[in-house]
Hints:
- By secondary structure, the protein is α+β, with helices and mostly antiparallel strands.
- It has three helices and twelve strands, in the order αααββββββββββββ.
- The longest helix has 40 residues, at 57-96.
Amino acid sequence: MISNTQDTSSAAALFASLNASSSSAAKTSTAADTQDRFLKLLVTQMKNQDPLNPMDNAQVTSQMAQLSTVTGIDTLNTTLKALSDSMISTQSLQAASMIGHGVLVPGSSVDLSSGKGYGGIDLTQSADKVDIAISDQAGALVRNMQLGAQPAGLVNWQWDGRNDAGASVADGSYTFAVKSTQASNAVDATALQFGMVSSVTQGKQGVALSVGQLDGIALSQVRQIL
């Protein structure tokens, strides 16, 4: 017959051993290791139980349920890690195929090249009046383009490189602002700038694009591929 004192000492020694092992290999623990330690603990408890006061079925069932839960969590973590790695690889392939293509991303710059500039807006609802105000780097108004009524969603626009007087302006970088209204009420609109995808970077935050002079553009920010 094993005394209660012996039971306590054996259990304490076992827990100390398990904890020491767990601390030294915490970073390399696997689901199999966790299951093995759990089973060893349960078997040791059953071997050293008091015959006059054995563990009841509820205790055994409870500990087996804990084992199943821990093993399930480890398996789920492994599955999610594999799924995450797969998604990153897929995103990288998708992003790489965009190199050399033009895209619209949030921004308020417009590059004029060979007398042509492109941009876009994203309207939350339809508008009966949409104006695009293009300014130079000094902030001086160069051209006010009236797009008229536009439906909700993406709207592309093109600038012919002329100012309000009809004269051609120099190629370079300009900025633009959007003003949209519906029955004299302002309509929310997101300014979108056009740029060519030049490179793809995979970092801690996922896949990012270099678009024109912009870096770190997430795939989710691409509103349209042209």
